[in-house]
UniProtKB/TrEMBL annotation:
Biological source species: Streptomyces xantholiticus
Matching InterPro entries: Glutaredoxin-like, Glutaredoxin-like_YDR286C, Thioredoxin-like_sf
A Pfam family per the record: Glrx-like
PANTHER family linked: GLUTAREDOXIN-LIKE PROTEIN C5ORF63 HOMOLOG
Protein name: Glutaredoxin family protein
Gene3D superfamilies per the UniProt record, alphabetical: Glutaredoxin (3.40.30.10)
Amino acid sequence: MSPLLRRTKKNSAERTVTLIGKPGCHLCDDAREVVRQVCAEVGASWEEKDINEDEELHRAYWEQIPVVLVDGEQHTFWKVDAGRLRRALGA
């Protein structure tokens, strides 16, 4: 395989987790705690986006929140499994 075609594996500190949710959502609150804890453990950065403030996110994910993306790709929705997120982040 050509080196240009090979995917470079990022270490945890280079990864970004995005939590997409909305205020008042108890599943989002639960997901936020798991994401915060796992990212702190492995050194990944994370951000949160409010589905009510972004029409594109609302269209794409309104039935699935909370949604977790890892480096912009959907990882999971509704319930976040800490072990699975750790593995996705390379930890």
